[in-house]
Predict the 3D structure of the following.
Amino acid sequence: MAKIPIDLTKGALKEVEVPKENVIIGIDLGTTNSLVAYMLDGKPTVVTDHVGKNALVPSIIHFESADSVIVGQDAIEKLITDPENTIFSIKRLMGKSYQDVEDYKRFFSYQVIDNEVEDSLVKIRIKDKFYTPIELSAKILEQLKRRIEKTLGAEVNRAVITVPAYFNDAQRQATRDAGKLAGLDVLRIVNEPTAASLAYGIGLDAEDTKTVAVYDLGGGTFDISILKIEHGIFEVLATNGDTFLGGDDFDRAIQEYWIEEHNFDTDNNAALTQELRLAAEAAKKSFTKKATFETTINGIICKMTKVQFERLVESLVQRTLSSCKNALKDAELSIEDIDEVIMVGGSTRMDLVQGTISKFFNKKLNNTLNPDEVVALGAAVQADILAGNNKDILLIDVTPLSLGIETVGGLMDTIIARNTKVPIKAGRQYTTSVDGQKNLKVAVYQGERDLVADNRKLGEFVLRGIPSMAAGIPKIEIHFLLNADGILKVRAKELRSGVEQTVEMRSPYGIS
Ligand code: AMP
């Protein structure tokens, strides 16, 4: 039986101590906003700011100087007053090379640097220093860490961090590295849709058997995931999405409309660009309550109606439907097989989105939880499971992209296929093509295309010291071990001699 402590000096009941050490926190590291949550009295709870109001920490970082950095709400106004030193949407650059983001460079008001080394990590120049997206994301994580430590009055150093299900290995690794830089031991990287299901408690009852579609339209990314939940097992049947589609694009549609309508000259005027961006977002948000919007920018009245807005962004919403169709196809399911549709991400507040998705799935939507908080709440549930407080639950994810190695003629030989459940071990035997061959290069790729040149290279290594044998005699086993975070270990072993080498496929973008 629980004992209630009494303060003998005052005769009052003492506050019951919640064990604060060893808390594992759940973090939603978002494009627009980030949140931190934890289990409080058995309930996932988001941590709010010092006035207990806002749980969202805008994912914005402002550099006053290299040593003076502001993160979150206070950095927002700096988007206008000091755009070059104010970073937004850094998640879009995680694990990306300059080539990956070149086409989108104009949307950033800060300097995205091309160091002219193919496939090297993109860098951001702030004043006279260069930063990686990992370092910048770490600033956001540090802020979240400080926030929860203040609330708990205790140090926190273990976390679960969520990522879009569509994130590739490089992006997952970058997220993990950002956690490490922020002083967090990242126990698990969890797919955002998996976390969302956990937040809704779906599957926590072992009797539940459901097929769920998680529609997640955030600030910068769109994910659709089809999950099968059975006997406490969460299995991601398929994922699809677009890492460059989100609320930002809806804002941009309004922004570009006003620029054209009023001939705003935004060239070399980063402050005006940002002002338009923020006004466009305000307009978009207002349409959940009102039918018209009006504001003044640079002395010019900018207007928009909800009807106009919905016409402008119709094609963006339709693009999400294409992804939904592809995910259903990959899962070999039809719309009738979906039992529940879960809405996640701030952008699902839009009436046009809700109407279109409800009609497509022919279902009433699950949107009772705050769509901004769902993922962080689910991350806290996952953290609690890892802490051993919910032993019955298993989580099974799938790898969103195929993994394989390069073979003769630059062909991709897939070893772990897309949508395979992880963790998984898989292997295949190869041999040499030349007499007396001593070395074998193993180049690992991720992607669906037949030619490795069209896929993404994760890394390569050379198995050395193969004893001299005729071509075709050595038995070289290439073995892949993909863990629950989607991070890959590759082992090459010549089975006759036992010569072997194991390499963790840290993406080319990881920190060493
Ligand atoms: P998230 O990445 O989930 O935090 O999503 C943030 C996105 O949701 C941003 O693009 C916001 O502009 C958008 N958002 C928040 N509230 C609303 C709203 N009422 N209507 C439309 N979009 C919204």
Observations:
- The pocket of adenosine monophosphate is lined by residues 30-33, 218-219, 247-248, 281, 284-285, 288, 345-347, 349-350, 372 (CB under 6 Å).
- Residues 306-330 form the longest helix (25 residues).
- Residues 1-8, 13-18, 507-512 have pLDDT under 50 and may be disordered.
